[in-house]
Amino acid sequence: MTQARHDLLLLSNSTAPGRAYLEHARDAILDALDGLRSIVFVPFALADHDGYTNTVRRAMEPLGISVRGAHEGTPRDLVAGAEAVFVGGGNTFRLVKAIHELDLISVVRARAAEGMPYIGSSAGTNVATPSLRTTNDMPIVQPPSFETFGLVPFQINPHYLDPDPASTHQGETREERLTQFLEENDVPVLGMREGTWLRVRDGAMRLDGVAAGGRIFRRGSAPVEVPSGADVTWLVERVGSFDTPR
User: Fold this and answer.
1) Which domains does the chain have, with CATH numbers?
2) Which of 37, 127, 208, 213 qualifies as a FRET site for 159, CA 20 to 30 Å off?
C-alpha cells in the first residue's frame, strides 16, 4: 500500500481582531502552497457561495494566487484537478451535508494522499478529522453521516476557549463538552486556540501560530497544555475508536 503524503494547513480561524481576512496566516499559507499559484475554494459552509469566494479572492490574489470556487463548475471535477484546495469555515453541519451530497469525500482523500495541499479553516479544519462530532456549531441541517475527510486520525476543536471562572454563562464550558465527547468516544481531541494552526508535512505534525497553543484531551488523562511550536506527531500513535462508552 502506498503511504499517504498529506500536506495540510489546518487553521483554527480565518479572521483576527484588527487584521484582514487570513492576514494572520499569510506566511503559513504561502509556505503550504510552496510556489503553487491556484486553489479551488470550497465555500459550502456558508450560503452565499459567490460572496464567500470573492472574499477569498481578495485575500489571495495580492499573494499571486488565483481562486476558483468549487461551485463554479462541477465540484468533484474541480477538486480532482486542483493544485490545492482550501475549505472555508462557517457551519460544519451545512458543510458536511454538502460534501456528502457532492461526493467530495473520496476525491479529497485521494488527492490529499497524493500530496495535494489542503488548507482548512474552522469548519474546514473540522472536516479534516474523521468526524464532525467536535464542532462547536448548531445542527442547522441534517447531513447523511457525521463522517468527514479523515486526513488526520484524531479530532480537532477549533476556536477552543479556556474555562473562564468569571463568566456568568451557565452552559457547559468547552472543556466540559470535550470531556463528554470522551465519555462516548475514545479518540484524542486537539483544542486549538484562536490564532493557531496545525501544520502537517512529511509525516510530522506541529502546532504553530501567532497565539498561545492549545490543549490535548484524551480519555483517562487530564488535559495537556501544548505550546505554539510543539511537535504533536505523537497524536497519531494510537488509533482511536468512536461509539465506545466507558
Assistant:
1) 7-236 (3.40.50.880)
2) 37
Q: What is the grid cell recorded at 174? A: 468547552
Is 34 designated active site?
A: no
Residues 6+ apart with CB under 8 A from 197: 9, 10, 11, 12, 25, 28, 207, 208, 209
Q: Could you say which of 49, 131, 137, 186 is catalytic?
A: 137
pLDDT digits (tens, 9 = 90+) for 58-76: 999 999 999 999 999 999 9
Q: Is 122 noted as a catalytic residue in this protein?
A: yes
- Identify whether the C-beta of residue 207 lies closer than 8 Å to the C-beta of residue 230: yes
Instruction: Please identify which of the residues 38, 159, 208, 228 carries the catalytic annotation.
Output: 159
Catalytic residue check, 208: no
Cβ neighbors of 91 (< 8 A, separation 6 or more) are: 45, 46, 123, 137, 138, 140, 141
